[in-house]
Structures are given as structure tokens and as C-alpha cells.
């Protein structure tokens, strides 16, 4: 038994001697394979008890490789570092795409709409063409089965009728406003829509709101008033058009909530049906107010001044009007009313800024302050109401 211990002791002494002969660079190498070669029996000068030393070295080599494998397994998630997107993050990306598309389409529509109205000041026909283009686009998509046609009945169209009336009035009034004043001024006044919402809900529906909601109306009303008073190109028709549009869209939202409750029609198809009914409502009034003779003379004058680009402007404003409204109704299926209100506020800011830059709209500092106060009040309102 004693003789069997001595070879082990001498083997350990040989290992220590070998370690002293190895350079520090190799000795402290982090690679397990180098450490294993440091303890290899090939480095031993004496062949005494070589088999015993080989067993010890082989055991250390196995232990070293096991440790290396364990460290690799333990560090694998850190090295890969890939996070699998969950359903919630995918939903956020989808909502972000909706918002970006909504804002971009709305900005483009307002730019082309103002270009058309500057050259062709007939807002009733312009509004009619927007609704006609959207209706045609959806009919083609249903016939070609690009989109699934909605399943509707007589009750659906009955509940849609008051929504279409309010939508038609609001759309035409906003177009009339933009034909008389700058796009930025129209949208500053339209940012006061929450004040009309609270007023209508209180008087007609008997709803009551907490104090913060009422207080949030003060900056909205004050900001709109300050912007209107300091507007360089103020026009009463343009101002009243924006105010009527606010009131009409509030009623549209109220009727939409009642009409869409328990309805299986998607947001995209709901707006398509709304456009078609609004087109039927606005066409006879457009003919009565303006008429084909005025349209023909105005169209000739616009084409002679602008050229073929005018036709492209009309098509663009009509297409983008439908697309931005369609995306907004589609986003309602994916987000909460609070998120939609915040998105609507940010959309209005982007339209105001873009129109000022593109059309070089003159604006006073006080006028800009009034716009900022009104928009800030709209944001506070959306937070307070929830």
C-alpha cells in the first residue's frame, strides 16, 4: 500500500516541475486545450510511473473538457442574444405603421386638396369627387375580391343614414373652410372639436364629465380664439366652415358608436359604405349650389393656368382622402379611443407644420402661440377624459 502511494507523490512532483518550465503566457492561457497540454505526460522527462501519471493527466483532460462544455452551454443565451418578438410587440409595430401611414396620407391629402382649391375654388364638387373616388375604389375591390364585401341589411343602412348626413356636412364644411383660409388655420380651429364634443354630450345626451375635462377645454377655447384673432388672412366663411365641421363630426362620432355597436362590419367596409351613402346625399346639393356650368368654366380655367398637372392634383386629393380615412377607421379596430385621440392630435400638428412649410403661410408668433395652446389643450383633454 505504501509503495503505491509513492508513485503518486512523485508524479505530483513531476507535474509541479513541468508547470515551472512552462512560460507564463501558456500557463495562464484561458483555453482549456492549452491547459491540458501543459499537464500532458509528453512533457515528463522521467518515464517512471508513466502509466499512473497518464491516468491523472487523462482525468484532468476530461474534467477540463467538461468544464469547457458547461461554460459554453451556460453562455449560449448571452452569445446568441436574440429576443423572439411576442404578440404584444408585434401589435405595437402594427399600430405604429397605422399611425405613420395615417399621418402621411393626411398630410398629402391636405396639400393636394389646397392646391386644387386654389386653382379650382369649387368645394362642393371637390368634396363630391373625393367621395366618388373612394366609393369606386371599394366597389372595384369587392368585385375583384381583393377585399371581402360586407354583409349588410336594411337595418344597417338605416342606422348608417344619420352618420352619413353628419359626415357629409362635416366633409363639405371643412372643404369650404380650406377654400377660403389657410390649411393651418382650418386645422387650428378644428383642434377645438373636443369642446364641441363635451357640449353636445352634455346637452343632448345628458353626460357629465369630471372637473379636469372641463378645465382642459379652457386652453382649447382660448388657444383657438387667440389664433383666430391674430390670423393674418382671416375669413368668416372659412372660420364658420371649420366650426360647422367640428360640430358635424361630433354628431358623426356619436351616431357611429350607436351604429357600430354589435355590428360585424369591419372598419374599412364601414367607411366604404359611409362614403357611398354620403356620395348619394351630397351630389344633388353640389349640383344645386354650384352646377355643371360653373364647373366647366372653372375646370377650363384651371387646366389653362396649371396644365395637365391639375388633373393629377384632383386625382391625388380624391384618392388620398379616401385612403387616410380608411386607415383611420382601420386603426380604430386595433387601438383604444385614448390612443386614437392622441394620434389625431399628433396628426393635426403634422398637417399644420407641413402646410406652413409648403405653402409658406405667414404666421405671427402670437398666432403660433395660440395654435400651440389649443393643440396642447386637446392633448390634455384626451388624457383627462380617460
From TrEMBL:
GO terms for molecular function: organophosphate ester transmembrane transporter activity; phosphoglycerate transmembrane transporter activity. The keyword Chloroplast applies. GO terms for cellular component: chloroplast membrane. Its main location: plastid. Keywords: Chloroplast, Membrane, Plastid, Transit peptide, Transmembrane, Transmembrane helix, Transport. It comes from the Eukaryota. The chain crosses the membrane at residues 95-112, 124-143, 211-230, 236-255, 267-286. The keyword Chloroplast applies. Residues 94-382 form the Sugar phosphate transporter domain. It is found in: Plastid, Chloroplast membrane. InterPro entries: EmrE-like, Sugar_P_trans_dom, Tpt_PEP_transl, TPT_transporter. It is a multi-pass membrane protein. PANTHER family: SOLUTE CARRIER FAMILY 35 (PTHR11132). This is Sugar phosphate transporter domain-containing protein. It comes from Brassica campestris.
